[in-house]
Amino acid sequence: MRCARLFLALVLAASLPFNTIARTAPGFVAPFAKSQMVAAANPLAADAGLEMLRAGGSAVDAAIAVQMVLGLVEPESSGIGGGAFMLLFDPKTKKTTSFDGREVAPASARPDMFLGSGGKPRTKMEAIPGGLSVGIPGVVAMLEMAHRKYGKLPWARLFQPAIKLADNGFPVGPKLARTIKGFTRGANMPDIKARFYHPDGTPLAQGEIYRNAEYADSLRKIARGGARAFYTGEIAQAIVDKVHNAPVNQGGMTLEDLANFTPLEREPVCGPYRAWRLCSMGPPSSGGIAIVQILGMLQRFPASQLQPGTLSEVHLRAQASRLAYADRAKFVGDPAFVKVPVKGLLDKDYIAGRAALIDPAKDMGTAAAGNPPEKHAALSPQRSPVLHGTSHMTIVDKTGQVIAMTTSVESVFGAEVMVKGFFLNNTLTDFSLDPVLDGLPVANAPAPGKRPLSAMSPTIVFDPNGDFLLSVGSPGGPAIIGYVAQTVVAMLDGGLPPGEAIALPRQLNLNSPTRLERSPTNDALEPQLKAMGHTVTVVTGEGSGLHGIRKVKGGYIGGADPRRDGVVIGD
Question: Is there a catalytic annotation at residue 390?
Answer without folding.
Answer: yes
